[in-house]
Write a structure and sequence with these properties.
The chain folds into 2 domains: 256 residues, Pectate Lyase C-like (3 Solenoid), CATH 2.160.20.10; 178 residues, Single-stranded right-handed beta-helix, Pectin lyase-like (Pectate Lyase C-like). The strands form 5 sheets. It has a 22-stranded mixed beta sheet that branches. An 11-stranded parallel beta sheet has the order 8-13-16-19-22-25-28-31-33-35-37. The N and C termini lie far apart (54 Å). The protein is globular and about 65 Å long. Strand 38 and strand 39 form a beta hairpin. It is mostly beta strands and 467 residues long.
């Protein structure tokens, strides 16, 4: 017997009803908001080794073997697709409901860097915009009860993807960025938004994308390299990420992007990547407003970040809204651009509210210094700045709180550049310290109800920097 699961107004798929569908729960009672317990699917004992479906180590591609094992596992009511010790080369892996990809110790999944291995195009979200694009290397779409677990590693080939990034300044790539923006702004139908057919797009696939799915466990495995974002949780809910170890340097290699996703716990993870470490998003502009879904109820705890652009950030894709987020007892040792950072612009709309960081520390290495320990900017547009503004929607920013946060060095302890049309309302710093600041220690523009250790701080006239 099968039944359709409706989650937040989205059909999540036909899921086998089974007595094996049991759950444990992970709690976060320390959250200063009502955080629901997050279910963790108990994986049934059935095992489906990829070697039983034709997989062999070495240079042979095992895409078909992975697919056959996953189909058999899901059809049987669920269990583990076992990846034994050894190197297993493959193209895209598409998960199905009630399937746990189990990477046994000593195993390594080696994804090719041949774009043809990630076709046909799938329904994905690329930098906040809905599109048809190359399949993520591991992709789950409209699934319930899925997991990636084990002590093995995911180590894709990245030579071609790095060369694609090197072409980012070509006229064709710039034309692609403008076209992507127009697709979103003009409501172009999804079937006409095929990135793979756009010459010179140089778009790279995500490593892992969980899309419109529920009851997700990511646990213990290692990531060593990625074409693009490492872990992208999009339009999903009930997610536990624990004990994973990411080392992935390159452009846009965010650690984990929590995007239009709710009820998430990230704990005991290690992040070392070439972009933001833990970043909260809620899609971009018209697509986000159409989907009408926010990111909410997120707890990040006991994680270590070794390098990255932010320890925890929100934006700049915030159009669906972000609320009720707590990071606590995390540390960073390395290099970071901002510690706790909210970024948006006048095109995004949405909201960012009730975001907390508590009991975290940052020890900088080398001579560099973060821009801020706590930072909020409302004019961050990057390469999109020269494109037309279709709609002006100012982001509402409320209740940003940091307590017991320590950094060894930064340019600013607190930097707030709000928007005069809807000033930032409520920024609280308590026991936030910085051993050395290399510029003005406190900068507050277009904000109200800003306090440090209970002392109100007046706004200082000024102009936000162009980013």
């Amino acid at each position: 017997m099968k039944k359709a699961i409706l989650i937040s107004g989205v059909i999540i798929g036909a899921v086998a009803a089974s007595a094996d569908a049991a759950y444990d729960y992970v709690s976060a009672p320390e959250a200063p908001f009502k955080m629901p317990d997050v279910p963790v699917w108990r994986v049934p004992a059935r095992e489906f080794a990829i070697t039983d479906y034709g997989a062999v180590t070495g240079a042979v591609k095992n895409t078909e073997a992975f697919a056959k094992a996953i189909v058999a596992c899901s059809a049987a009511g669920g269990g583990r697709v076992v990846v034994p010790a050894g190197d297993w080369r493959t193209g895209a892996i598409h998960l199905k409901s009630n399937v746990a990809l189990d990477l046994r110790e000593g195993s390594r999944i080696v994804f090719t860097d041949d774009p043809a291995d990630y076709l046909p195009a799938v329904h994905t979200n690329w930098e906040g915009v809905e599109a048809m694009s190359y399949s993520p290397l591991i992709f789950a779409y409209c699934c319930t009860n899925i997991a990636i677990v084990g002590k093995g590693r995911i180590a894709p080939e990245t030579n071609l993807w790095r060369k694609e990034w090197d072409k980012r300044n070509t006229p064709m790539h710039k034309a692609f960025i403008a076209t992507l923006y127009d697709w979103c702004s003009m409501g172009i139908p999804l079937e006409k938004r095929d990135i793979t057919r756009f010459p010179g797009s140089h778009a790279r696939p995500h490593l892992i994308q969980i899309n419109r799915s529920a009851n997700i466990l990511l646990e213990d495995f290692l990531i060593r390299g990625s074409p693009f974002w490492n872990v992208h949780l999009f339009h999903s809910e009930n997610v536990v990420v624990r004990g994973i170890d990411i080392y992935s340097h390159g452009h846009n290699t965010d650690g984990i992007d929590i995007d239009m996703t709710k009820n998430v716990i990230v704990e005991n993870c290690i992040f070392d990547q070439g972009d933001d470490a833990i970043i909260l998003k809620a899609a971009r502009n018209h697509d986000a407003w159409r989907l009408g879904r926010c990111t909410e109820n997120v707890v990040v705890r006991h994680c270590t970040v070794r390098n990255g652009h932010v320890l925890m950030g929100a934006g700049s894709d915030v159009s669906g809204g972000i609320r009720n987020v707590l990071m606590h007892d995390c540390q960073m040792v390395g290099n970071v651009f901002n510690v706790f950072y909210v970024k948006t612009n006048e095109r995004r709309g949405g909201f960012v509210e009730n975001i907390y960081m508590k009991d975290c520390s940052v020890e900088m290495r080398g001579k560099s210094a973060p821009l801020s320990v706590v930072g909020i900017e409302t004019d961050v547009l990057y390469e999109w700045r020269n494109l037309p503004t279709w709609d002006v929607r100012v982001t509402r920013i409320r209740n940003i709180c940091a307590e017991n946060v320590r950094a060894t060095r930064a340019r600013h302890l607190l930097m707030v550049y709000g928007d005069a049309r809807d000033p930032v309302d409520g920024v609280t710093l308590k026991n936030v310290t910085c051993g050395e600041t290399t510029a003005e220690r406190i900068v507050v523009v277009n904000a109200k109800n800003v306090t440090m250790d209970g002392v109100p701080l007046p706004s200082r006239p000024g102009k936000a920097p162009v980013r």
